[in-house]
Amino acid sequence: MTKIRALAKDLGRQGEGARDLHSSVALLLTQADALMGAKRATTDALLAPLVGDLLGPFPFFGGGNLPGGLASELGDMSKSIERRCTQLEACKKLAEQGYRIDPVIAFSDENPPDAKKIEDALRAMGELKGKDFGSNGNRDDLEKIQKQLDGMTSAELDAFFAKVPDADFRLYGKLASNADDGSWLKWWDHNGIPEAARRDHLSRILARIGPSNWGKMKDAFPGIQPGFDTTDAWLDGQNAQNGQQAQGMHWGTPTDPLFTPGRELNAGEISQGRFADCWYISSLTATAQRNPQFIREGIKENPNGTLDVRIWDKDGNLRWVTVTPDLPLDKNGEPMTAYNRVSHERWPAYYEKAFALMYGEDDGGAPDGHQGDKRYDRTERGNYGATEWDFNKNAPPYVTGHGSESIDNDFDSVRQSFESEKRPVIVSTPGGDKLKADGKALWGNTFSTRHVYYVKGFENGKIVLGNPWGPPNGDIRATPEEYKKYFNDPQALKVPR
């Protein structure tokens, strides 16, 4: 620790020296340049910008060239290392008192942990057992604990989780998740933490605790992890439309990159995976095609390995939902979820996972060939099953924050929305055995009925439609007459540019 602190101090000194060095070199080159008339004092790519850059050491005046630009950077780095050292020393003291802190958290850049805050939260959690909450319900008591936990640093929260008895935290989860208030005769009776506030609370916790405590979180609040055992893929062992196999489903964490550094996001490489949520993946892919930066900005990786995903809820409110990095995998360890099957980027899977948690409008879904079978057609919330077989207009508000616009089902209207208005567009296919047979005769297995596609463009008088199944399924190229016969319900999305 002594050597690390010495390094921090040395970086700070070097940062201070960078200002003086910059001023001296810039002054020398500027004077030389003035004396040399038409000739430049230097043509070196690194030194040339210093000519006349006498304010370089002060970035807020517009100068950010080296070496002066290092002044604030090295200073910030020095202070960060000092804070992390103080944090690590405080964590060591907590460990001596019997608290365990995940190594992922111990070197965080935050205020050092306060043992009293941890002890107070443990005491409050233990006092929930057998407590008489009075006639006004338990919400006020639970919100006090919520405030305590939300106000903790990562290290404090992780130490709390490591020590709180499983039964105590499960009780907190049970009470917080039951937000049913009393009858209208007892209007003052308020219980649990309301869903939106509870979801934000859980995300704040999950984004900070170490991986060793995620299991305790999931045990007390199962709603932070979407289930997959009600999906068609689980029940049938395959995707019913394309026949992709789905045996041996289990949770696992892929090691592929979230986004590939230095590589542009390619919407055409996204594969839907084996869940029947084409209606959502088409909206996500169409949005990524039109505005890839909007998609990049919608996922943030946290220091503990979790991910914050931007999504709008059923009431149109912007949310950042925290998810763990594990995903449903098949028996071979391949993702069951949406994925980039070319560069193996994970980002589509986490958008899909957050959507599975947040989708709030499932009422049994669109016709899926299992009408009347309650294993398939039932209202669900918070799992991958809720996202299967639904209508294309339901997805855009969750992806973009705006409802889609239903446009006329003709070639020219779709083209105008896509080309002139620069809007992502998705289209559907109706059901019917004859339509399916005729469509496959034209386009092969990339055509499917009761499916949703996204518009990729227009070429040689034809509309080009992308299949959310992704590679190796090819695009569909349809004439205006073919489009009219095989496709319907076009929706134009609104995405920030």
From TrEMBL:
Residue span, Calpain catalytic domain: 215-497
Entry-linked InterPro entries: Papain-like_cys_pep_sf, Peptidase_C2_calpain_cat
Keyword Transport in the entry? The reply is no
- Enumerate the Pfam families for this protein: Peptidase_C2 (PF00648)
Q: Which UniProt keywords apply?
A: Hydrolase, Protease, Thiol protease
What molecular function terms (GO) are annotated for this protein? calcium-dependent cysteine-type endopeptidase activity
State the SUPFAM superfamilies in the record.
Cysteine proteinases
The record's active-site residues are: 278, 451, 467
Q: Spell out where the chain crosses the membrane.
A: none
Gene Ontology biological process: proteolysis
Protein name (record): C2 family cysteine protease
Organism field: Streptomyces telluris
Classification from the root reads: Bacteria, Bacillati, Actinomycetota, Actinomycetes, Kitasatosporales
